[in-house]
Design a protein that fits this description.
CATH superfamily of the largest domain: FAD/NAD(P)-binding domain
Distance between the termini: 45 Å
Helix content: 10-25%
CATH class of the largest domain: Alpha Beta
Largest sheet: 10 strands, mixed
Structural class: alpha+beta
Number of domains: 2
Strand content: 25-35%
Order of helices and strands: EHEEHHEEHEHEEEEHEEEEHHHEEEEH
Radius of gyration: 21 Å
CATH topology of the largest domain: FAD/NAD(P)-binding domain
């Protein structure tokens, strides 16, 4: 948000690229918080890890930007919490819930956790992901592993239903660069809702559906400056259930003093039932900001941060009771585990995914042992 370049707006040096055909204990596909944590936890467990990220830092990530108490124990354990505290952020002390009829209630977070700075933060994912990936790079390389950026996984390698590694090239999916292959006893899918590893596991190997629109949420985010009702760098985040957005909500999450993440999310199957402009989350949010009797007043002196308007999708961890969706969606198999959004772990009430993502990342290191699984997991 600053005019001068901040540390997270610069590159991250990830060192040399491993040779084609190199073998690792663990290959992690995806360098977001879940993938970075999975790579770090497994490296801390003595594994030689390859962490792959398709983008090149600096890069943005669309999200509500909240990092809650469920996440902070992992953030602290991985040595990132102090980094978070030293960058611009918003300290969350409470959550305001608003109903369709305009009533609100403020729920305070536990005071002891807040005093320990373990209740919650809100900061742009561009910052948070940078810190997580940079720290993972340090941990992985110090343990003898490798980290690469700008590498597009085009094929998940498989032998007899067992995932054995990945292959791909640098650049976009249509680029014809040199193909490199990497082998591993365990491949971890952390590539978000379109993760190639998860797709291979669920659709390719087991012939099951990846997607169920009753359990997917569409999201749209903008950054705004000077939204009314927020002062300082500490206070509540807000979740509002507005007629026409349910099942879903409109959110206001400050990310630093004077800057607010403003967004809207809605279950995709319900969104598809909308007609006309109501089908567009961007247009629906514009209506809330400009016409809703409460919010038009709060936005009257606010200005949008140009270029921040982006949308994405969230795969919920809600029970999928009707076949062929299966309950829950498959997240592990021979030679493979998935974490975070790739494992469809987003909380269906809050829309928060980082906490479950970091927990699932730690679980991979608890269930994989490089000696016991040297010939393949499990």
């Amino acid at each position: 948000m600053e005019s001068e370049m901040e540390s997270w707006e610069g590159p991250i040096d990830t060192g040399e690229v491993p040779e084609d055909g190199a073998s690792f204990d663990v290959v992690v596909v995806g360098g977001g918080p879940s993938g970075s944590a999975a790579a770090a936890y497994n490296a801390m467990n003595g594994c030689r890890v390859l962490l792959i990220e398709k983008e090149v830092w600096p890069r943005d990530k669309i999200c509500g930007d909240a990092v809650g108490g469920k996440s902070l124990s992992h953030v602290k354990e991985l040595g990132v919490k102090k980094m978070v505290e030293e960058t611009p952020h918003f300290m969350v002390d409470s959550i305001v819930f608003g109903s369709a009829n305009g009533n609100t209630v403020k729920v305070m977070l536990p005071q002891d956790e807040f005093e320990k700075k373990m209740a919650g933060y809100s900061l742009p994912r561009m910052q948070f992901d940078y810190m997580m990936f940079k720290r993972a790079t340090e941990i992985v390389t110090e343990a003898g592993g490798s980290v690469i950026q700008g590498f597009n996984v085009k094929e998940v390698l498989e032998e007899g239903g067992r995932v054995t590694g990945v292959s791909g090239s640098f650049g976009g999916r249509s680029d014809e660069g040199e193909t490199l292959s990497f082998w591993s006893a365990l491949t971890i899918g952390a590539g978000g809702y379109r993760c190639p590893v998860a797709t291979k596991l669920v659709e390719g190997i087991h012939g099951e559906p990846m997607r169920d629109d009753d359990h997917y949420c569409g999201g749209y985010r903008e950054y705004w400056k000077d939204v009314g009702g927020f002062e300082g760098s500490q206070g509540p985040i807000e979740i509002h259930f507005i007629e026409g957005v349910i099942p879903g909500y409109f959110w206001l999450f400050p990310v630093q003093e004077g800057v607010v993440n403003v967004g809207i999310g809605m279950v995709i199957s319900e969104q598809r039932k909308q007609t006309g402009a109501s089908k567009s989350l961007k247009k629906k949010q514009r209506w809330v900001i400009e016409s809703h009797p409460v919010f038009k007043e709060r936005f009257k002196d606010a200005s949008i941060v140009e270029g921040s308007q982006k949308g994405w999708q969230l795969p919920f961890g809600s029970p999928r009771k009707n076949p062929p969706s299966y309950q829950p969606r498959r997240t592990a198999g021979a030679g493979v585990m998935c974490v975070g959004d790739a494992a469809s772990l987003v909380d269906p009430f809050s829309g928060e995914g980082i906490g479950n993502g970091l927990l699932s990342a730690k679980m991979t290191a608890k269930h994989f042992n490089k000696d016991a699984h040297s010939e393949g997991f499990p």
